[in-house]
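call fold(seq) -> tokens
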Amino acid sequence: MDWMNYTLFTLGGAPVLLIDLVSSLLGLTCVFLAGRNSKYNFWVGYLYTAALFLLFWNKNLYASLFLQPISLTINIIGHWRWTHPKQDEASSKGDLKVTQLGWAQRILGIVAVALLSVLWGWMLYKLFPGDPHPYLDTVVTVLILYAQLLSALKKWDCWLVWLVVNITQIILHVSVGHVFMPIVCGLYLVNGLWSLASWWKLYKKENK
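ret:
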């Protein structure tokens, strides 16, 4: 697929490929819509997953590529949950209400993310010794999956996790010399802060 390797422009001496820009625009659109409580974020999410699959295939990042079916499954579950809530979970508009985790659930989530990241990082280190940051790489991946799951369940806490993801991704991309992706992650971070406040207002409004 030569079209994916088409260089649109260079930034800081690094080429920005067509597939990089397409996947970034789809990702930003997806989280923008999610932050504004729009169910259409899932339709964009399907396209985003497909774009990431092509991106990782193009760059031979098979560990990340194999995660896309999991992301797709979470997206489908979230689409159904948002549009088909139970009677006691529905907002006045008929969609799924924003809720939040309890403290016990938050602690359990942190422990689960930490344990899975260590295990996954060790496996990545053994299977793909060329990865310069196997543990940081897996922390980001596990946090993304956890944030996607919380988003699918419409938990306000998802935006706290997304903020950690965005900050960690910026550190990861800067550490390996990327220029374009830290800028994209910075835009994700701004949207995450806005969405955190927006969903909190929704939570207070829908759970009076």
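Residues 180-206 form the longest helix (27 residues).
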